[in-house]
Specification:
The chain is mainly β.
Length: 505
Amino acid sequence: MTGPTSESGRTIGRRGLFVTGAAAALTLGSVSFANAAPPGGEETRTVRGTLPPGSPDYVYLPVEVPRGVREIAVSYAYERTPVPPGTQGNALDIGIFDERGTGLGGRGFRGWSGGARSEFFIRADDATPGYIAGPVRAGTWNIVLGPYTTAPEGLPYAVTITLRYGAPGRTPAAVHPPERARGRGRAWYRGDCHLHSVYSDGKRTPAEIAAAARAAGLDFINTSEHNTHAAHSAWQGLWGDDLLILTGEEVTTRNGHVVAVGTEPGTFVDWRYRARENRFGHYAREIRRAGGLVVPAHPHATCIGCNWKFGFGDADAVEVWNGPYTPEDEVALASWDSTLTSGRGWTPAMGSSDAHREPQLVGMPQTVVRADDLTREAILDGIRAGHSYITESSAVSLTFGASGGRARHAGIGDRLDVDADTPVTVRLEVTGAPGCTAHFVTDQGTLHTAPLPESGAGTVEWRTTPHYATYVRAEVRHAPKVPTLPGALAAMTNPVFLGPASGRR
């Protein structure tokens, strides 16, 4: 690696490679400022260097911050070297940790913007979206660089740090969304649990997201910025009796992304590990300790670092439908379906929009949850139990269940506890799906299909036994655009399991 240099050209030596308990990381030489400066003054340092291909996932640049600093401001740039087709070019992420250190768990975490912005600031009373406002205390801060991809010639970068001196100001008390909205009692509630705003790499403000959620007919949303909880306090005045706002994070590792859904406000979940470090189970437990759900996102996405490598043993649900329906979702759906055969310890499916900007639609798709009320606890309980289905919009509604034996009935996510040879009737009611076809899917595959009326509203029934079908779930699909390939989903349900109670989850 080329040693980083200061503005004057003096080489700043590196400390070398160290292990943080997770991925190997590189720490550069410290950047120092004057011990003190007059109130109202400022100082600036620029550090330049080149990261070679194969650099560690995270490179730390220590900054020695003296007393009396009112604001720290950082900007950076890097060369986007032209590369041949099929070769990855340069992409560099950035964030910062304060004097409390860079240890896993994030005690010193003060913000992350990935590659979404080229500059940020932090002071007591304010911070750039994605960063945590608070005092700029004296000590060793660390700017963290994340070489996402590196060109064969290396990744030349320049980081400029400015310290502004003066009275620190006051940090406002954080105001977080309430855990309850005015619900309809036990009912079906619509939500989108994977959304991005200007607090990470989205283009919408929280106010624009809240307005879009209401327009999409949603009852709840989950804020899920990449690798930061800074948006948890950004929703004041945006919730209401009609909209429950949950707080969370999209934990964006190099081996896949996981959405923490409904964690306690202010919870930060670290992302600096790969599957080989065997750390994910620890952070999955941290999410649950904070009251949230662990939901691997777009598990078969093809973007770099997006494909899920941690397994599903720690998942509470899995996002099988992410944004407009694509072949990646079809693979995710098939992979998830293959895990349902036993009915024991199964993982429910979810769908979310992952909307970042126009024209991406908030609530396309959305998860519709049967919950006792419109509260954080009830919604998470419903998702965890699999009492949910997924639709492309609020125009589509489903009612699905199975009945048999002594007038027994089971709904989505439940088990119909009858003997293996008991006749069972599976029934699906659909509205809002014109031009679509209903499919009943079992452990053997799709065993029954029926076109819906032109109105898009209809009822489909099918008879089977638990011996013939271990579970049944419903899909509503648009007409295929390519012959021999399935049409895109308009809606799908979690399964109803059939058979003796010994197979219950």
